[in-house]
Amino acid sequence: MRKLWDAITEMDEHNHPIHTYQVCNVMEPNQNNWLRTNWISRDAAQKIYVEMKFTLRDCNSIPWVVGTCKETFNLYYMESDESHGLKFKPNQYTKIDTIAADESFTQMDLGDRILKLNTEVREVGPINKKGFYLAFQDIGACIALVSVRVYYKKCPFTVRNLAMFPDTIPRVDSSSLVEVRGSCVKSAEERDTPKLYCGADGDWLVPLGRCICSVGYEELDGSCHGISLNDLDNSE
């Protein structure tokens, strides 16, 4: 196992600095170069999403390369309840996917500082332990990893039909919804049991039921406000 990814800062076509991890050992066969993240806490997530932005060199644009150049890299992960520090054993990692580029760059693009940035997203789950590592395996490509964003989705706190619904994490199974019962806002009471369903993409779906303002209160901007004597006088 070799760890030959280099931390390099370059300038894009707009003269903005780009901080990357790069590897480009395309002349030698049997490459096995790894880059691993720090330990990442999963928080409340059951499923995580990994967004990678990267550039990849077109093998046909590199002279004198015969069969050793690749145009993909591999993404792995490992769950863990705690940080393992600098210890790294690739055989403990599970492969998520082979990542390929939609666009690769050539020597001409390099000279013009044209950044052909690819974006790929992969999902992983269920995650059961307290955290995880991600690892990137190069097997002989010319890659610059520009950014990695790790996130999870949730249905955010919301108020619908005078009922409050808390932050809710979707199920790992994207085909099933999480039923959430709402609680009435202050000075409101249930007319029909308020419910929403949390979808896999973090969207609230299928609103059912509602709350209504209690006697002596009226609805205004999603909450119940007391009716004053002046309001009653003006309505007569």
From TrEMBL:
One of its GO terms (cellular component) is plasma membrane. Its EC number is 2.7.10.1. Residues 1-160 form the Eph LBD domain. The keyword Nucleotide-binding applies. GO terms for biological process: axon guidance. InterPro entries: Ephrin_rcpt_lig-bd_dom, Ephrin_rcpt_TKs, Galactose-bd-like_sf, Tyr_kinase_rcpt_V_CS. One of its GO terms (molecular function) is ATP binding. Keywords: ATP-binding, Glycoprotein, Kinase, Membrane, Nucleotide-binding, Receptor, Signal, Transferase, Transmembrane, Transmembrane helix, Tyrosine-protein kinase. It is a single-pass membrane protein. It is an enzyme of class 2 (transferase). Its main location: membrane. It comes from the Eukaryota. It is found in: Membrane. This is receptor protein-tyrosine kinase. The lineage of its organism: Eukaryota, Metazoa, Chordata, Craniata, Vertebrata.
